[in-house]
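lol forgot to send this yesterday, sorry. struct tokens for the thing we talked abt
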């Protein structure tokens, strides 16, 4: 397996084990976004042919489109002449690469000393991520209802507890608990 992954050793990773990545749209040649990859992200991208980046803000792997649905299917992975920049040629699902709801993250152009926006928002980001919140909340509620049923409890038991807590701070409420269970 090590010999099969030796191509990863040819990448000039920075001091943090990262390499900059440019995503370019296959059909138009337009630059869609810039991101970072660590070794694992590049390996996963190569294996799945779907873009996986390293999110510095989340401090974890980020599968492009995992929340928005705007997945990038990778058709080609290229390494530059200095072996320190990756270029992904991608098909962008949904036509939106940017978290602002635009086609490309490069939607500002310098004109006469001012940055002007030259791309419309395709979809409001609140709407993009609202659906993800609905999905995740539905998963949470489903598993919570299953757990309650398994314990012989009903949703009304939880609603009664929430009514009891109304107007209490979290600290006061927790101190008022009378159960002997572990917290």
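and heres what i got for the seq, position by position
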């Amino acid at each position: 397996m090590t010999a099969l992954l030796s191509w990863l050793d040819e990448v000039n990773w920075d001091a943090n084990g990262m390499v900059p990545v440019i995503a370019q749209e296959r059909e138009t040649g337009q630059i869609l976004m810039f991101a970072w990859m660590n070794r694992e992200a590049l390996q996963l991208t190569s294996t799945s042919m779907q873009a996986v980046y390293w999110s510095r803000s989340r401090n974890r792997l980020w599968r492009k489109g995992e929340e928005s649905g705007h997945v990038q299917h990778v058709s080609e992975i290229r390494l530059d002449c200095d072996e320190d920049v990756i270029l992904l040629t991608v098909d962008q699902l949904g036509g939106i690469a940017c978290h602002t709801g635009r086609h490309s993250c490069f939607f500002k152009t310098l004109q006469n000393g001012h940055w002007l926006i030259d791309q419309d928002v395709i979809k409001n980001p609140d709407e993009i991520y609202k659906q993800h919140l609905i999905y995740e909340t539905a998963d949470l509620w489903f598993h919570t209802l299953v757990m309650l049923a398994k314990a012989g409890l009903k949703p009304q038991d939880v609603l009664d507890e929430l009514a009891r807590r109304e107007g209490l701070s979290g600290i006061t409420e927790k101190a008022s608990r009378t159960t002997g269970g572990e917290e």
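The chain has a mean pLDDT of 90. anyway ping me if u want another try
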